[in-house]
Amino acid sequence: xxxxxxxxxxxxxxxxxxxxxxxxxxxxxxxxxxxxxxxxxxxxxxxxxxxxxxxxxxxxxxxxxxxxxxxxxxxxxxxxxx
Length: 82
Hints:
elongated
């Protein structure tokens, strides 16, 4: 159980370290371009902060579905022939 959590953490850290998460939509980019550099960086950080909860919720749902699929109850019951 610790290994999937470690893999998830490493994958998340790799994504956060890249610049791809700092990408913005067109309207956000224009609003950030009209601001000073410090404000634009704070704006980028705010976008990441607002994107984190949905990402964690989706990861939690995916983990719950994965555990349900591969859990101890995943084997079909046998009836009849013994």
